[in-house]
Specification:
By secondary structure, the chain is mainly alpha-helical. 56% of the residues lie in helices and 7% in strands. The strands form seven sheets. Strands 11-15-12 form a three-stranded mixed sheet. Pfam families: DUF6178.
Amino acid sequence: MNKMTLPDKRRVKHLTLLRQPREISGKEFNALSFDERLAMVQSLRGRQQYDLLIEAADMQQLVQRMPMQELYLLIRELGAEDVLELLALATPEQINGFIDLDCWQGDLLDPRQALHWLTLVAEAEEDQQLRVLTGIEFELLTLMFKKWMRVTRGPEDFDDEDERDEAILLNGGFVIEYSDSEVAKLLERLLGVLFRRDPVFHRRLVESIRQELDAALEEEVFRWRNGRLLDQGFPEPFAARGIYAWLDPETFSPADARKTIPFGFEEDRAAPGFVLAETLPKNLLAEVLAGGLSDETAWELTCLLNKLLVADGIDAGDVLQVDQALRRLYATLNLALEKLCGQDVARAAELFESSYLEILFRFGFSLLLQLQGRARTLLKSSLAPYFDAPCRALLENLAKPRPECWEGILEVNRGGSRPFECLTELQLAGDWLRRLEVQRRLFEEVFPFTLPEAENFDLTGCQPDELVQVSLSTFFLTALGNQLLGGEFVPEPIPAVELVTLHGLAGRDGRVDPDLRKKTIAELERQLPGGGSFADWCLAVWDEEFCNLDADSLDPRFVGGLIVLLDPS
């Protein structure tokens, strides 16, 4: 038996009681109250959760009290074929839910997936087969069988009375054609169980398979399926996308999210535990939820997660994708709380309990949409082809339908992306955008030249000779170099023979001349507030890639921050 740890907290109605955590035996586990054991099961996931269920003396009661979605995730994570006893113990309502989640492609029942679940049923003991088959929603069961068989004759179609009586004794008097010989063996076995154990139900099912019109039946079953899933917080896709609807952060008030009606849920149903067992929130939200979730909040979070899964087309049984969606849900809620409450935990806890979580989520996501809009504007500008790699990575991640944080803004040499987790990260991304927006205004409104269109930019005979090596700092420094050489402030390639002269004008003691730096920064700041920072950033390139080079041995191939016209010879 695996080790079991008694939790350090015990819920008694609305109270949380503390106690000393310790390892307990299977006997001690089974001596706990049913609610405590169920809570322990729900606090785990995957193999640990399954092992604890196996240890329970009343495994069936625990399984049947688990929320359908939680049990479905467990079955999908471990593989239904390896945990057949869970399916055998599940309630008809739970099994209907499994099929609702797993067997549909749009508005059509997937025949292969339906057959997969019927195959799992056939692996159980006959009593359990009977219980499951008669418990599945009748029209749904009809459709599942109908995908693989058709009834060509009934008892009334036999002219010979003896032949009819023999057929009735054999299988109710129905002649059935199957679309596949292997499938025939499976379905005949299941129908045989029904015929022997519940002939009335068997006749009703086969007659329904025979008489129902395919399209009308599938439409009706799909409608009932949507209704059942809606009760679990799975709306239809169009309605689900409302979770991402814009709320103007500039005019939003916490009062806009305040609950006027409590979130409805069935109090006799166990609240989902996987919303905390799967992944833990971080930052302010973690402190808010440190004491655990009320049943109402657990159901509301689960329904909100399910809405997000539908909106994003995520398989509700894919544990990894559900985990990622849950992380994004928590991160977005945390953004909302931090924006509205700062780091005031008490205020955030009150707001979290008194507000509709979907509205808080929409507010948090709208903060991301603000950044998304700014990023997309920059990517459509004339500067877009010339943003350097870090800036482009930032913009492309912000411009996604679900904006993400490029981790390079948090730490140098990091290149991944993930959901924004806190307001500080959001503010940091905003600072980067402000700098890029200043650059856009400099190049589109201030500088006396326009950037070349990328497709028409000819770098033949130049260094660098590839577009990807040219950035905004390259254009600015090349224009500055031409100006220092007595020409106009334009980014025309500088002849290689002029590099030594420019080196003497721009540098002093291996760095940019302090007077030139001060004058350039001041001039850009005068022309556009914030422009001085861009100038300083560009001149740092000359510090590292031009002014620190030996003037007597300058090689255009190793000069940075300039477009150089190479000597044809």
